[in-house]
Design goal:
CATH superfamily of the largest domain: Hypothetical protein af1432
Distance between the termini: 49 Å
Number of strands: 0
CATH class of the largest domain: Mainly Alpha
Length: about 400
Amino acid sequence: MAGRFGDIGFGFGGRAVYATDPAKSRGRLIAEPESPTRTPFQRDRDRIIHSTAFRRLKHKTQVFFSHEGDHYRTRLTHTIEVAQIARALARALRIDDDLAEAVALVHDFGHTPFGHTGEDVLDALMAGHGGFDHNAQALRVVTRLERRYAGFDGLNLTWETLEGLVKHNGPLIDPATGTPVGGKAVPRAIADYLAGHDLEVQRHAGLEAQAAAIADDIAYNTHDLDDGLRAGLLTFDMLRGVPLAGEALAIVDDHYPGLDDGRRAHEMTRRVMTAMVEDVIAETASNLDRKIPQSVADIHDAGETLARFSAAMAEREAGLKRFLFEHLYRHEEVMRVRAQAEAVVHDLFRRFTRSPSLMGGEWAGDATALDETQLAIRVADYIAGMTDTFALSEHRRLFDRTPDLR
């Protein structure tokens, strides 16, 4: 990778000048003594891994519901795969791999049971109360809803990890106009938090968070191909003309004719992943050559996402996404089960808002003193934290008939 940043690659040289330096962290909202053995970002990563929200990811849906088979990805296995790719990108780019890993590990904390299905239902039900957004919910989890520490609610993560969580997909406010990016208001939970802790949502996140974001795209594109083949909803014949997948499959079939389906799928998907990872590293190196950042502040103010696919790869990746959307995410079997899951979340929300005491424990607590919006947020928090299995068990407790989501 030629140019000023030509030494970027798979080496493990010193940290780059544009990396986020843990020694210069902006710290935590609640001040704590520094660890003598871990950097601030390593502590963030460890707190994330040891949280209740992280364990719950084991029983939250990615695409296929967890009871459909032990080998399908869940939110937890997806998260681990994202973290691995994020670390690989960070090391190649000579940025802080602990921060990249922390952002990757926390990025899905706000997801509801039943994948995006649950999020869509809650967003519709919360339309009059600020809506529901899984990224904003993740911020609520790590700043309010996790209750493990004596000195504070949440995990008290560093400014950099919170910034990466909120902005890993880009700024929320257009710095030129001061208006929300994409025309959609900043989610209520994020706006409320920003009133007391400025995460500078008009600037780009550091390169570590950008690496985590693109790692997410790479991970789900490749593992959804694998899971779709495993489930029988996709076939190798369908993939022959699909960008990235078809090219990788042709190479595998040429090198290993007659390979069994399991190995064939793995050989194909790992080549798809490698092609995307290597493209991101090369494109990001080119962008760094062009921008010549001298500090992390230069990354924040670059005016563009630097860790990204090349134009050619972005076009191919978009084609792969379109294929997966049409043939996997919108497959009639997936949509049938999705409709059942929608009913479960809808039923739970309506029942708990009418009878909040049914939530039990601290969730029921002072519910009678809450106004309509406060109660809706309380119920959304409760449901969003559920695993698939707990949501179904709660539905069975409260209703005479519960779908088995098969």
